[in-house]
C-alpha cells in the first residue's frame, strides 16, 4: 500500500524543482542574461510592513483554495534570470508540516506558483478525465484570481505528479509569448496539486512593423559578420512574429536589454552547414519595429 509519506516525497521534490525552474528562466538553452558576476538568486530584506502584506496575500489565497494551515516564513529574493523579485511563503499545519509553498511577484502581488504538499488518498480516486479536468483547472485559477484564456487548453497526464496537467500558452495581440503561460495540475480526485504562471511584462507593440524580408537580411548580416559563408547558410521556413525577452546572444558578453521587458520580434531560424554537414541551428530575434537584432537562442 502506498503511504502518505511515500506520496508526499514526489511533491516535495516537485516544489523544489518548480522553484529552480522558475529561477532558471522560461526557456531552456537561452543565453544567460545575468549581469557579470551576478548570482542566480540574491536574497533580499523584507521589512515588517512588506512581510505583513505578503502573509495577508498568502492567507487570502489559502482561504480561497481551501488549503489548511497558517502562512509563515516569508522570504524575498531577486531572481536574476527572470529579472524579478519573488516572495515565497510556506504554509504549515498545526503539527508544523508543510501543506503548501506559495510564490508571488513582489512588485505586483501576482501569484507565480503554488504547490500543495498535503496529499491524501482521495486524490487518486479516478473521478476526472481529460474531458472534465479543464473545468476544474479553470475553477482553481479563478479562485486564485487568475483569468484563463478562452482558448481550449492543452491537457496531458503528468506521471511525475500523478495528476492531469492543464496548460494555456500566453499570447499578446494574437502573437505567442515564448515561455509564458499558465499551467494547473489537478489530481484525478479533483483536488488542486499545483499551479504555475509566468507573465513577463511587455513593452508596447511597435506602431509600424518592418517586413519579414528585413528580418532575414538582418540575420544574414549577422552570419556574414560572424564569418559564415552564404553557401553554408539556410533560412528555415518563414520568419514568425513572437514576443521574447532581448538578450546578448548576438553580442556575447555585451550589454543587453533584459530589463525592458518583452519585445515583439521576428524569429528567424538559420541552419549553418559548413561542408554540407548540419552543424548548428540558431534562432535570431529581430525587432519588429526597428529591424535591429536583439538576441537569439540555439535551436533544438
What distance separates the N and C termini?
41 Å
How many strands in all? 13
**Beta-strand percentage range:** 35-45%
- What is the CA-atom radius of gyration, in angstroms? 22 Å
The portion of residues assigned to helices is 10-25%
Structure description:
By secondary structure, the chain is of the alpha+beta class. The protein has two domains: 4-198, no CATH class; 212-298, Nuclear Transport Factor 2, Chain: A. It is built from four helices and 13 strands. The strands form two sheets. A nine-stranded antiparallel β-sheet has the order 1-2-3-4-5-9-8-7-6, sandwiched between helices. It is elongated and about 70 Å long. Mean pLDDT is 85; it is low at 1-10 and 19-38.
Short description:
This protein is of the alpha+beta class and 300 residues long.
Label this structure with key terms:
four-stranded antiparallel β-sheet; nine-stranded antiparallel β-sheet; alpha+beta; 4 helices; 300 residues
Give the helices and strands, then pairings.
Layout: H1 4-23, E1 41-44, H2 48-65, E2 70-79, E3 84-92, E4 98-105, E5 111-116, H3 133-143, E6 154-158, E7 163-172, E8 175-186, E9 192-198, H4 212-225, E10 233-244, E11 263-272, E12 280-287, E13 293-298
Antiparallel strand pairs: 1-2, 2-3, 3-4, 4-5, 5-9, 6-7, 7-8, 8-9, 10-11, 11-12, 12-13
Amino acid at each position: 500500500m502506498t503511504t502518505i509519506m511515500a506520496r508526499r516525497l514526489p511533491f516535495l521534490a516537485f516544489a523544489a524543482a518548480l522553484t529552480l525552474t522558475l529561477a532558471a528562466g522560461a526557456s531552456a538553452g537561452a543565453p544567460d542574461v545575468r549581469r557579470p558576476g551576478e548570482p542566480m538568486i540574491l536574497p533580499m530584506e523584507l521589512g515588517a510592513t512588506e512581510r505583513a502584506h505578503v502573509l495577508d496575500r498568502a492567507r487570502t489565497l489559502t482561504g480561497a483554495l481551501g488549503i489548511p494551515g497558517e502562512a509563515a516564513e516569508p522570504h524575498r529574493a531577486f531572481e536574476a534570470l527572470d529579472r524579478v523579485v519573488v516572495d515565497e511563503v510556506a504554509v504549515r499545519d498545526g503539527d508544523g508540516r508543510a501543506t503548501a509553498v506559495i510564490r508571488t511577484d513582489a512588485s505586483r502581488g501576482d501569484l507565480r506558483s503554488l504547490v500543495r504538499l498535503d496529499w491524501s488518498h482521495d486524490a487518486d480516486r479516478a473521478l476526472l478525465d481529460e474531458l472534465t479536468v479543464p473545468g476544474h483547472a479553470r475553477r482553481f485559477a479563478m479562485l486564485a484570481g487568475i483569468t484563463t484564456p478562452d482558448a481550449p487548453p492543452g491537457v496531458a497526464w503528468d506521471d511525475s505528479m500523478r495528476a492531469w496537467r492543464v496548460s494555456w500558452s500566453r499570447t499578446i495581440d494574437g502573437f505567442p509569448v515564448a515561455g509564458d503561460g499558465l499551467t494547473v495540475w489537478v489530481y484525478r480526485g479533483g483536488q488542486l496539486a499545483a499551479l504555475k504562471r509566468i507573465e513577463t511584462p511587455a513593452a508596447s507593440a511597435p506602431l509600424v512593423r518592418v517586413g519579414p524580408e528585413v528580418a532575414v537580411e538582418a540575420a544574414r548580416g549577422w552570419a556574414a559578420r560572424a564569418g559564415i559563408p552564404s553557401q553554408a547558410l539556410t533560412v528555415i521556413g518563414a520568419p514568425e512574429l513572437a514576443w521574447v525577452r532581448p538578450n546578448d546572444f548576438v553580442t556575447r558578453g555585451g550589454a543587453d536589454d533584459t530589463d525592458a521587458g518583452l519585445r515583439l520580434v521576428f524569429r528567424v531560424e538559420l541552419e549553418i552547414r559548413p561542408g554540407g554537414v548540419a552543424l548548428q541551428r540558431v534562432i535570431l530575434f529581430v525587432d519588429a519595429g526597428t529591424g535591429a537584432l536583439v538576441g537569439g537562442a540555439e535551436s533544438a
